[in-house]
Amino acid sequence: MLLAGGQGSRLGGLTRRRAKPAVSFCGKYRIIDFTLSNCTNSNIDTVGVLIQYKPLLLNSYIGLGSAWDLDNPFGGVHILPPFLGEKEGSWYNGTANAVYQNYEFIDFYDPEYVIILSGDHVYRMDYALMLKFHKEKNSEITLATIKVPWEEASRFGILTVDGDERITKFTEKPTQPDSNLASMGVYIFNWSTLKQALIADASDDQSQHDFGQNIIPQQLEQEKRVYAYKFQGYWRDVGTIESYYNANMESLREGHFLNIFDPKFRIFSNEDILPPHFVGSTAKIENSLVCNGCIIHGEVNNSILAPGVYVGKGVQIKDSILLPYAKVHTGSVIRKTIVGENAEIMRHCNVGAEGRSASDQAGITVIEDHHIIPEGSVIKEGENVYRPQVI
């Protein structure tokens, strides 16, 4: 069950018109590609995708799931929007409630195990190895965990384990964490255990109906066998502008986590097929990812250009991320900036952190989708430029 309904308000203008899992990442991908690809690479062939916020783009993007080989007749990918429950007009009211509302979908397949996933994390993981651990421990619930920097620990569910990796304490987003072992938001449940937990939670009027806030702590109180699977690979929660920007920039480093040429663990995408990118005679590109359909006449350094981006003559792009079909016209300079989808920066603009590198403390400038920056504009570092709403 893939939870893909988050609004992602901390991503500002990047999610005003789309759910966080649908945001472009690392050029040709969208954030949800990583979790769906993990399912395919882990031989999971039945996936329920729970969509709520701005569902149209995600719905059309996923389609029948053929891009991830999830269009098989024995299960496949299923888009599961909210439906009217006991309270007329209700939507998903928490992560546990989202799964509870789709109880009949799970029960139809009557699985032995159910894996709960998030559609807004960037990582590569073989869930089959986690399931193997779950079985070996005779676990009822297993949480994928990873160590995070101490200064970020309060953003996550933090847990303590004993010598056998059994979880003894779990606290959701503690103000003073006593550990930096964090939940990744990836859970494996025995279906019988999850079924009972969801039914009990649904009848509790005091519950927030959330896995981290309610389900996991309650199961620990009931002394269920809950274990921590310690994940050793790359994982990022890209829920803020800073974490989203940094994760994109990390993909430009030598030996980066996203080996798109690895035949054993491919990352699949459903982006439109575009012609090859074009590099003009005046172009200069260094240490950058340039996707299909781009037209480049200027300089691009340490940046990521998603499909269909246009860079005009005399343009300088540095330490930046340009999302699909963004355009930057003659003579403009863009530094440490995220340029939204279909946004357009006209001639001779100066945008972002002047004369600084991506590694310093300069703020990240964000240009919202479809916004047009007028000719000659100067946009200071750290500004969030939004497109005016039309009522």
TrEMBL record:
Pfam families for the chain: Hexapep_GlmU, NTP_transferase
Official protein name in the record: Glucose-1-phosphate adenylyltransferase
Site note Could play a key role in the communication between the regulatory and the substrate sites, residues: 52, 91
Domain Nucleotidyl transferase per the UniProt entry, residue ranges: 1-252
Function: Involved in the biosynthesis of ADP-glucose, a building block required for the elongation reactions to produce glycogen. Catalyzes the reaction between ATP and alpha-D-glucose 1-phosphate (G1P) to produce pyrophosphate and ADP-Glc.
Reaction(s) catalysed (UniProt annotation): alpha-D-glucose 1-phosphate + ATP + H(+) = ADP-alpha-D-glucose + diphosphate
PANTHER family linked to this entry: GLUCOSE-1-PHOSPHATE ADENYLYLTRANSFERASE, GLUCOSE-1-PHOSPHATE ADENYLYLTRANSFERASE-RELATED
Entry similarity comment: Belongs to the bacterial/plant glucose-1-phosphate adenylyltransferase family.
Organism superkingdom: Bacteria
Listed GO MF terms: ATP binding; glucose-1-phosphate adenylyltransferase activity
InterPro entries, sorted: ADP-Glc_PPase, ADP_Glu_pyroP_CS, GlgC_bac, GlmU/GlgC-like_hexapep, NTP_transferase_dom, Nucleotide-diphossugar_trans, Trimer_LpxA-like_sf
